[in-house]
Amino acid sequence: MISIRELNLLGCRANLADLPDGKLLINTINAFSYNNARKDALFEEALTKGDVLIPDGISIVRACRWLKAKTQPKERIAGWDLFAFEMHRLNRLGGKVMFLGSSEKVLDLIRKKSAALYSNLEVVTYSPPYKPKFTLEDDQNMVRAINEANPDLLWIGMTAPKQEKWTYANWNRLNIHCHVGTVGAVFDFFAGTYKRAPEIWQRMGLEWLYRLLKEPRRMWKRYIIGNVVFMGHVVREKIGM
């Protein structure tokens, strides 16, 4: 079962510059995904067997320190931090970025914003069918679209745990050479269809509270109950239960 003490996490945002070139699967972990990984063995495998795992949650960072974990990140590295770093780096070089996930409406906004902010990038998008479970044909179509695009950077945004499980299950069928990030809500943040917390909330580690206050009916279970459950897991790991 997943253990915070044994997580192999990237230490800080500056370490993003040290990631090797080539095909690399980059996942993020926070309290919500940790809780789900404890109940879903396939998600746990998909989450932890990628090439890089970044601590997208201040609770993960603090738990690692309290538990004296194998890796103790210096700071939270949000999915947005990964996105901004990779997009700016590729824009300096020029290349092709692909967004797989979300709706055509959101993807259209992404194409327009990318053209305005990243003029050296060619943008390719693919909106998969909106359904709980993909068919074999759906998988084949998405894999084919990725391989035909042959991007220099690939973003998968289908929310956790769906995006991690899909990418992991199809990883060996992706004939690509680039970094792949499973970044979920970043699609909406970039498109402007969902507003991130103000920077001061982010610096204080309270982005989760901002989201809860903005959407209490949708987020209360994830953040109120979920955070209590997460703390219980951490305490049990501390005392060796």
Characterise this structure.
With about 240 residues, the protein is an alpha/beta fold. The protein has a single domain, classed as Rossmann fold (3-Layer(aba) Sandwich), CATH 3.40.50. It is built from eleven helices and six strands. Strands 2-1-6-5-3-4 form a six-stranded parallel β-sheet, sandwiched between helices. The longest helix is centred in the last third of the chain and has 23 residues, at about 215-240. The model has no long low-confidence stretch (mean pLDDT about 95).
What would a concise description of this structure say?
The chain is an alpha/beta fold and about 240 residues long. About 50% of the residues lie in helices and about 15% in strands.
Radius of gyration: 18 Å
Quaternary form: single chain
- Name the helicity range: 40-55%
Spatial sequence of strands, sheet with the most strands: 2-1-6-5-3-4
Determine the CATH superfamily: AF0625-like
Approximate shape: globular
How much beta, percentage-wise?
5-15%
> Which CATH class is shown?
Alpha Beta
- What number of domains? 1
Mean pLDDT: 95
Instruction: Tell me the structural class.
Output: alpha/beta
Q: Which topology does CATH recognise?
A: Rossmann fold
Distance between the termini: 12 Å
Question: Helices and strands in order, then pairings?
Answer:
Layout: E1 24-29, H1 31-39, H2 41-48, E2 52-55, H3 58-66, H4 79-93, E3 95-101, H5 104-117, E4 121-126, H6 136-149, E5 153-157, H7 162-170, E6 179-182, H8 186-191, H9 199-203, H10 207-214, H11 216-238
